[in-house]
């Protein structure tokens, strides 16, 4: 697909989750807690969690957007909507381009087959062909440093070893639209340094990035724009420093600015 055709668009997109077994004393009006989406009731008086409300998002090739917001704000739901896992309950969502959703590093891995076979399966799960993955196998094997373990079934790996393999595969693909949920877990610091370099390169060759994270450093490294999601709505859309500053305060904004300066990326706002 030509770069100019790669797009993500949502128009007043809403996602509700009906909860049929909710134990609620009284839900006469919508309840807003500090964490989580808005709890309300639909026309048939079923309790619903309004995870996303009236999302209008328009992304094109080259956009790198971070999502910030409290627990349960709706970040993961938005990523799933953009990946086609959820349909909007109301409004619409149109995604043009090959999407690679990376939520859970372990998804698409089979414990009973070898590391090598898992490289192929996981890559195909992310939209690559078998041939493309075969061409990348050596390089992934080298990055993972798993040596002869790659011949062994995945169930014999430790958690960190699995993450190494999954990270190797995920960072080897060539997505048009990369949807990334932070969830990058148990690897040692030395390996993480290596992984970050590859992650940066992955983002650079991706058409569009949407990345949900609680790490300001990571957001500053990978994105140049941020959306603050608050109780299912876009509360703010702007430069990372500006949005993180509004969401978490001046200290966090200063932290973002430091990372941007270190990376030689100039901040879009000088607030
Ligand atoms: N499958 C589901 N069924 C019912 N409610 C759900 C479901 N998935 C998410 N929710 C609700 O939707 C809201 C948004 O959740 P979501 O996982 O998108 O938040 P988040 O911003 O990713 O949070 P966190 O930072 O904690 O990961 C929450 O109130 C959550 O309880």
Q: How much helix is in the residues?
A: 25-40%
Q: Helical stretch count? A: 8
Structural class: alpha/beta
Q: Low-confidence segments, ≥5 residues, pLDDT <50?
A: none
CATH homologous superfamily placement of the domain at 3-98 and 209-262: P-loop containing nucleotide triphosphate hydrolases
Radius of gyration, in angstroms, nearest whole number: 20 Å
CATH top level label of the domain at 3-98 and 209-262 = Alpha Beta
| Distinct compounds present | adenosine-5'-triphosphate
**What oligomeric state do these chains adopt?**
single chain
Annotation, overall tally of beta strands: 10
What is the fold named in CATH at topology level of the domain at 3-98 and 209-262? Answer: Rossmann fold
Shape: globular
Q: Could you state the order of secondary-structure elements as H and E? A: EEEEHEEHHHEHEHEEHH
Protein model, in words:
Residues 22-256 form the ABC transporter domain. Belongs to the ABC transporter superfamily. Pfam families: ABC_tran (PF00005). The protein is built from eight helices and ten strands. Helices cover 34% and strands 25% of the residues. The mean pLDDT is 88. It has a six-stranded mixed β-sheet with strand order 6-7-8-4-9-10, with helices on both faces. The chain has 271 residues and is of the alpha/beta class. The protein starts with 6 loop residues before the first strand and ends in a 9-residue tail after the last helix. Helix 5 (189-205) links the parallel strand 7 and strand 8. The protein has a domain at 3-98 and 209-262: P-loop containing nucleotide triphosphate hydrolases (Rossmann fold, 3-Layer(aba) Sandwich), CATH 3.40.50.
